[in-house]
Amino acid sequence: MRMHISTMWGLRGVSGTVSIQSVLERVRVYLGHVATFYYEEVSNVAVWWLWNIPFQFLQIFFSLLLFKYFAEAFGGSSPLYGGNFMAYIVSGLMINTYMDASLEVYYHSMAALYHGRMGVGGVHLSRRDFLHLAGISPYVFIFARVSWRYLMETLTFALYLLAGVLFFGFRLSAGVDWGLVFLIVLLSVAACSGIGLVSASMYFLAGAYRGVEPIVWFVRLFVPLVSGIYVPRELLPRGLAIVGDILPQTYAVGAMRRVLLGGAVLSGVAAELGVLVLEALVLIPVGVVLLRYSLSLERKRATMF
């Protein structure tokens, strides 16, 4: 009996070890797939990015120059901009690069899955069908596309910072907490990703593969006006300010400015970070559930393009 019990415990231990090993092996395989998708992206856009970086910098420079002369045409900076109009604009645009990407990247990943075509032996399959035949989860592909996009947006973030510092008097507060800056970026990406996931689910739920996706279309319509990226929220009528109170961009932009320009510490932006955490905890699960349901509808309907 003792041998039997010890043998059972031994088998359980072996089973647990095998289970951990299988999980690790699956993670290794998924990371290999992600690396492959990265290689595909690098092959497609690396030369494009290297060629376009100087042009991207010039575009950022002249867009900021337009803001500068626009402000001067109306008498310079208002006290509502904190005494430095250009720093106000640059800091808002910097953080919005990540948030705007979060709104659209999941939908575009869906489009790449179902509109993308791959040729195999003279037969053209959607990328989704090709991945299905290869036994690769579509979520691995989506993760790879999304994470790659954030790497590219980091470059845009740096270009805004460089242009602001070199040409527009953008000065960081002494002793900026870069860990806190990273936390703000992370939470803003998480909250806006919830909206982006809901947007991606509209691909099949609302038939948004036909063209305009309505969720992000409406969010982008309001964000520039009500979230404080360009216009101080103190100037807004109450109705528009309430719309801004709902959007995560409002809290991310406000927190980023306090840290970069005012030298705020964690306690100084805790309220904004709390709202971002709350919105992420609500929106991401809703977006994931809707996206999974949307993908299941595609298989049931056998949607053709």
Automatic annotation (TrEMBL):
Signal peptide: none annotated. InterPro entries: ABC2_TM (IPR013525), ABC2_TM_bact-type (IPR047817), Nod_factor_ABC_transporter (IPR051784). GO terms for molecular function: ABC-type transporter activity. The chain crosses the membrane at residues 46-67, 79-99, 130-148, 155-174, 180-205, 212-231, 273-295. Residues 47-294 form the ABC transmembrane type-2 domain. It comes from the Archaea. GO terms for cellular component: membrane. Keywords: Membrane, Transmembrane, Transmembrane helix. It is a multi-pass membrane protein. It is found in: Membrane. Pfam families: ABC2_membrane_3. This is ABC transporter permease.
